[in-house]
Amino acid sequence: MGGKSESTARTMLERFETIRPLLTEQAERFDSERKLSNEAFVALSEAGFFRLLLPTELGGCGLSPLDFMAVVEHAAALDGTIGWLVGNGGGMSRVGGYLPPSAGQAIFDEPSAFVASSTAAIGKAVPVDDGYRITGRWFFASGAPHATTFAPLCEVDDGSGRIVLAFLPREAVKLEDNWHVSGMRGTGSWDFEASDVFLPAEYVCDFQPDPSHAGIVYRLPGISAFTWTVATVPLGIAKGAIDALVAASSGHRRQGMTVPVAEREVAQSETGRCLAQYRAAGAYMRSAMTTLCAAVECEDANLVAARIDYRLACSHAAEVAVGIVLRVNDLIGARALAESQPFERRERDVRAAAKHVAMSTEQFVIAGNYALGGDISNASF
């Protein structure tokens, strides 16, 4: 934390405020169109929000994990869809730190570059001369409508069990617009497939690669790196809900009550609890990531414990975030049901975000089992 990364993060937050009015205006379209509007995508991409973890040598922000979290959380506080796609697009830009410089430069050559990934299925990569032939169908590729590159997981078809990331150009995949959901509607998380597509070897890397650039973010365990791209979003949504509650409460009276919400002691108490839980969950996430980075940096023998605690912090934060949004909406009452108000969609979005495998409640089981001395050899963390 600190130094150039922190300075860049502050710049990104300032840029976000510059485009906030446009993003707020466009947000009304996200649910109906089930994707980010073209105007919002252009504004975010031109401002660099899909390059948050891209190495600076390739024209990226090169943020540290904690500064990345600050930016994504800020975006998610405005709108869940925006936070989710900034987290996904900005998070997947880290692949520039895995690939050979020529491949990384080719993928991120244009300001509109966006890498959509999927860990929901595993395809097949057949080794051939100078590359691989990629086949498979993958789900939940957030940002697919605007993506320029698709990065699915594949198992190399050589009996080794090796898992790789394949970076397919948009024209090499077939997209299916099948994202019809209740929450996170605007993320455009479509399915995509590839059929026997040739991919040069420089566009394929191990799921746990040897980095091509310096920086701790490029050496994080693969699962941990994927998780961090989205784990911050529920907390950001919760912060947005608290902000909306504060903004609405001063003059708002619930039906049949003479005292404004802001003057009711129960509302004051619940708002205080929400703030405490939000801040505590965020502090735990930051602490766990700091410990994980230190363990990776020092090749610490306690890396397993650090990874488990980090995943526990992410799942805990998601659970806390859902509770905060529900509590806020209960305080607002029937007004929270109106689509014209800044409450209803946050409830749908935070519930949807918390269902992502990155924040699975299974992590509570794994952490508890580990603490009790159980066998976690087959656990995913």
Automatic annotation (TrEMBL):
Acyl-CoA dehydrogenase C-terminal domain residues: 230-360
SUPFAM superfamilies in alphabetical order: Acyl-CoA dehydrogenase C-terminal domain-like (SSF47203), Acyl-CoA dehydrogenase NM domain-like (SSF56645)
Domain Acyl-CoA dehydrogenase/oxidase N-terminal: start-end pairs: 23-89
UniProt keyword list: Oxidoreductase
UniProt GO molecular function: acyl-CoA dehydrogenase activity; flavin adenine dinucleotide binding
Oxidoreductase among keywords: yes
The keyword Oxidoreductase belongs to this UniProt entry's keyword annotation: yes
Matches recorded under Pfam families: Acyl-CoA_dh_2, Acyl-CoA_dh_N
Record's protein name: Acyl-CoA dehydrogenase family protein
Annotated organism of origin: Tsuneonella litorea
